[in-house]
Specification:
With about 350 residues, the protein is an alpha/beta fold. The chain is about 50% helix and about 10% strand. It folds into 2 domains: about 220 residues, Aldolase class I (TIM Barrel); about 100 residues, no CATH class. The structure holds flavin mononucleotide. Flavin mononucleotide binds next to helix 9.
Length: about 350
Amino acid sequence: MRTPLTELLGCEHPVIQTAMGWVADAKLVSASSAAGGFGFLAGAVMTPAEVEAGIQAIKSHTSKPFGVNFHMYAPGAAEIVDICIRHQVRAVSYSRSPAGTLIDKLKSAGIVCIPTVGAMKHAVKAVELGADAVVVQGSEGGGHTGKVASSILLPQVVAALDVPVVAAGGYRDGRGLVAALSIGAAGIAMGTRFLMTQESPVPGATKAEYVDAAAEQIIISDKLDGLPQRMIYNKCLASLEQASSPKMLLLAIKNGLAFTKLTGGSLLGMLSSAWQMRKANQMSLGQTMMAANAPMMIQEAMVNGHPESGILPSGQVAGIIKDLPAVAELVDSIAREADETIARLGQLGR
Ligand SMILES: Cc1cc2nc3c(=O)[nH]c(=O)nc-3n(C[C@H](O)[C@H](O)[C@H](O)COP(=O)(O)O)c2cc1C
């Protein structure tokens, strides 16, 4: 299937595997791109050296194009841009605080800039800053997410922009792809569906929680880092929702220190990012410090395999996903179902 998205990214199917911290590693990205989709490496939780090693690992597995996701406000952002240019990565994705200078540099090196946005005004701003295409995530989507559902946000953004728009938030199959195309999208982007595959590195005990989760149990809360985030409501999230401010602050400082070790940043750097975040998002200091704590709690479930004591970011779509296919099987089935759906619709009213 050819759409403006497959043209832009050089992939076979208009299906993006989005970046997910500690989930979208080199193995998952290689599998997604090799299957004819387009994978994004989750560089936002990596040091620049780890991003480079990830790019090299992907290239050793597949010659198909792929992308890198990172935070433009992070201390290593400029270095990651240089790495992406040096390795001629096909595309980059980013979300909060896009930096015009970095976008200009990437674009002049021929790298496609495709940010994810969760609101109409951010979509318009992203294009003003140079985005070649935009992934628009409805509130059903996993991780940080907006307030407006895909069914409302997607047509609104499609009508307003002149660049290809990719639908995200709540997609899992070929019928969803056709539905998004019918609204004017150029393809779909999925996180949770790719998290729930064989190649995803998430430990089995944690994947089982995703399989078991009901749609009603996958809620939006701002208690993790002060920003609305969709997660599976478990014991850990329940305790956060009920924690007193002093307890939350202590835990945040302890885990924040550990996170600076993990990412190679400095405590000062972390505090300055936290301060900028606080200013940009008008959060309280307690909430801001909690933002530094969040990665540790996510890792507890996604890396250490302790879902009951960690946080599980998830799209609501996990509530209707009950299998863990191989990535190639998944991408093939989406392409096949999209063709069947288009053929079925072609028969309507005849
Ligand atoms: C476990 C998890 C981790 C995520 N981490 C990131 C991230 O590091 N960077 C990012 O831009 N988006 C992140 N997201 C959002 C996804 O990239 C994607 O936009 C979202 O999952 C789409 O909605 P869906 O889950 O309904 O497919 C994450 C989502 C999940 C479920």
